[in-house]
Amino acid sequence: MSATVEQYVLAADRDNTVKTYAAALRNFEEVWKGLLPATADTVARYLAEHAEIYRLSTLRLHLAALARWHADNGFADPTRSPLVHKVLRGIRAKHAVPQKRARPLQLDVLEGVSDWLLKAQASARKHARRTELLRRSRDRALLLLGFWRAFRSDELANMRIEEVEAQRGKGLTCRPRKTKTTGEGEDRAFHCPALSRLCPVEAYLDWIELSDLKTGPVFPGIDRWGRVSGKHMLSKAVLPLLRRILHEAGAEEAASYSSHSLRRGFANWASSNGWDLKELMEHVGWRDVSSALRYVDVSQDSLKEKFERGLAASAPPAPQSPPPAPTFAEAKASDRQVATIHLRLLLTKPGGSRRGTERAQKQIATAHLAKFGVRQIDRDGKRFELQVPFHDRDNLDDTLLELLDELYRVALACECLLEASLHEPATDSTWD
């Protein structure tokens, strides 16, 4: 492969994908001392020895990295063997755990921390502590912009000044060159209005003016002498920074917040203040309903109000004679329920070819999704709604996890990489 061709092949992959696959391969070769090309027995042993270390989704990612390496280098793919699939199913049955949800940052906590940062800035300015003044100003801009724009940690860490246009009293627009959800050739812009209080635009401009930065990362590191780094903050550094800000401001249980707390906090605030789902998805950048619903909590108080309104509006039923006992067939049929499940499906092909992905997509749709009354719920064919019958929750788990295994088998057979997850909006349950 020529250098030019290799550059375009690499450009077809997302930066995060390239880095993640490289890290997975380093773990296999350098940490675990595995040999490439690998055998099915070796891969199965690797999975077994990491079953209690990594989540199932991480193990699947490592398998995808190994499959990609073998495909790129012309070797038979050991991850497609029945042994590897059986070990993976066993790990899923024994170690799968429900996903933990981020604790949302509530508006009153945001306001308290913002006020504390303003007071800390005033004190630092009064006593000529420039390093502290810079950090408090940067931290407040990061906190407010992260909340009102519901940014992920990588979006905050990778923001660049030259990509941002801001005007006091009006608003801010950020046009990042590439994000996790930006498609090829897509001009994705993030807008944020100026607000009467807790204003992210004002906080951003205060920080930029104080730091005198013209280009480079919006949120760089600051050393103990007040020197501002010209390098981007690592996305994994956003979480400890957020927790430090919350802890120093006196927020309760600061360590319980995660890098998704800003995003989920905004989603809950918007939902409780009358935003409809379409507005929320457009503002945040979600492209499917299941992603948005995963971040929104249902208020128990509002549920109680709806129950009580329904009870008050309905008259008590008139006394009736008991219905006849159901037949055995009727009783069995009544046991069967139907769950509405949202499927997120992304197929990619090493090198960017579409031929294999189209074949895999067609096989998945006809052989595995059609039986669930599949309905496409987006424009680009990546999100679907399924109607899945089940007798009990254990039966539903088995059905959905078996479906995921089938999808991964089809992808591997077509030499494709697959990212798939299932979500039930009614219970906020996720399978991946």
> What oligomeric assembly is this protein in?
single chain
- CATH fold-level topology of the largest domain: hpI Integrase, Chain A
Number of helices: 17
Low-confidence stretches: 325-334
CATH architecture of the largest domain: Orthogonal Bundle
Quick gist of this model?
With 432 residues, the chain is α+β, with helices and mostly antiparallel strands.
Q: Could you list some keywords that capture this structure?
A:
50% helix, alpha+beta, 432 residues, DNA polymerase, domain 1
3D structure, described in words:
This protein has helices at residues 3-11, 15-31, 40-49, 56-72, 82-95, 107-126, 130-148, 153-157, 200-211, 238-248, 261-272, 277-284, 289-295, 300-313, 328-334, 355-369, 393-413; strands at residues 164-167, 171-174, 190-193, 220-222, 228-232, 337-348, 375-376, 383-390, 417-424, 429-431. The protein starts with a helix and ends with a strand. The chain has 17 helices and 10 strands. It is α+β, with helices and mostly antiparallel strands. The longest helix is centred in the last third of the chain and has 21 residues, at 393-413. β7 (375-376) and β8 form a beta hairpin. The chain has a 5-stranded antiparallel beta sheet, with helices on both faces. It has a 3-stranded antiparallel beta sheet with strand order 1-2-3, with helices on one face. The chain has a two-stranded antiparallel ribbon with strand order 4-5. Residues 325-334 have low confidence and may be disordered. It folds into 3 domains: 3-95, DNA polymerase, domain 1, CATH 1.10.150.130; 107-259, Intergrase catalytic core (hpI Integrase, Chain A, Orthogonal Bundle), CATH 1.10.443.10; 332-431, 2-Layer Sandwich (Alpha-Beta Plaits), CATH 3.30.70.1130.
